Amino acid sequence: MKRLDQLAVGEAGVVTGFVGGDPRIETRLLEMGFDEGVEVKVTDAAAGGDPLAVRVGPTKVALRRALAGRIAVR
Length: 74
Known about the structure:
Helix content: 10-25%
Strand content: 35-45%
Number of strands: 6
CATH topology: SH3 type barrels
Low-confidence stretches: none
Number of domains: 1
Structural class: alpha+beta
Strand order of the largest sheet: 1-6-2-3-4-5
Largest sheet: 6 strands, antiparallel
Mean pLDDT: 96
Distance between the termini: 8 Å
CATH superfamily: Ferrous iron transport protein A (FeoA)
Number of helices: 2
CATH class: Mainly Beta
């Protein structure tokens, strides 16, 4: 299983679910648009690699690597 934090800048994937089983985090990610089946793309990373800039559908969000590691992608 691949996670969003493992994608390189410029690489895209499709959300397949969440890792870790924390319902509060899953709810927050769903509110941000990380629904199953949505295409995501890592568009940029800060100078130490954290946070990541991620396009979720038409929206771009900044996401800490630890949180990106909770999102499973294919």
